[in-house]
Amino acid sequence: MKSKVHAFTLMEITVAMLISGLVITICYTAYGLIQGYYIRFGEKNKTSSLVLDLKHVMERDFFKAIHIIRIEKGLVVQQDSLVVNYIFNDKQVLRQIESLHTDTFAIPVQKINFYFEGREAQITDTVDRINLELQMNKDTQVPVQINKYYSSSDLFR
Length: 157
Description:
38% of the residues lie in helices and 34% in strands. By secondary structure, it is α+β, with helices and mostly antiparallel strands. The chain has one domain.
């Protein structure tokens, strides 16, 4: 007695391979798109985190400051026990604590303005407000404003 063996025809195998090839192509394309979105999302988060870190550190330094003096390349923030220098380059912002360390914020500064009592501060003038325009990416600029509220005793020194 002969028993019949069940098998697929050549046409059925060809159709199955074609469908599986399409499914694999769609999956790899979706994976590539999601990976690209994730990479761009990570880059945006990294840049915005740098902007927030710089703003937080500057606000803290301004709050603790006794005097903030404008210099040619940036600011000198004089606190009770230390002096912090901010140097604004076209590619980065440097925060130097004398004899301790230097923090580097890799954010380009497009525009910077220093003010004291509503008027633009010149070199070696006291500063109570700073306006920065930071470049996050090619087409996104973030304005940042940081204020210092002096006490009357600090202004008479």
